[in-house]
Specification:
By secondary structure, this protein is mainly alpha-helical. Helices cover 99% and strands 0% of the residues.
């Protein structure tokens, strides 16, 4: 067993330079490769994260602008609808006034026509009365003239 321990001690003694070389290699790789690589990866992450945040900010601004434009569009549409409604009301009032004027003119014409008809009827009645008196006299003369003859 002592021989085994002695052999094991020899192996460990021979492994010490390898162990030291591995430690030196680890220290060298850490300083020369891993730390710079870590810095590069960190800068890369920060750059990509910054770009992502910038993109999110731009999207948020674009969404806000879109909402602002949509609100302005809705307001403009509302104004246009109000103007159209006012124009419709104005046109409807003008039509109504024109219809009222036309009705009044038609009623005036009807009243004039009625008055003219009544006047003509009165004249015709008067001329019929005169004609009937003349016809009655002529009939009476004709009837009386035949008897007298």
């Amino acid at each position: 067993m002592e021989h085994t321990l002695h052999a094991l001690g020899g192996i460990l003694l021979k492994a010490v330079p390898t162990f030291v070389l591995v430690l030196l290699l680890y220290a060298y790789m850490t300083r020369m490769f891993f730390r710079p690589m870590e810095k590069v990866l960190k800068r890369r992450y920060e750059a990509s994260e910054g770009a992502r945040k910038l993109a999110e900010e731009i999207l948020a601004k674009a969404a806000a602008k879109t909402e602002e434009y949509e609100a302005a569009l809705r307001a403009a549409r509302g104004e246009i609808y109000q103007e159209l409604s006012g124009m419709r009301r104005k046109l409807q009032a003008e039509r109504s006034a024109a219809l009222d004027r036309a009705r009044a003119e038609a009623e005036g014409e009807i009243l004039k026509a009625k008055a003219q008809l009544e006047q003509e009827a009165a004249q015709l009645k008067g001329s019929l009365a005169a004609d009937s008196d003349a016809l009655a006299a002529e009939i009476a003369n004709t009837i009386l003239g035949r008897r007298a003859a």
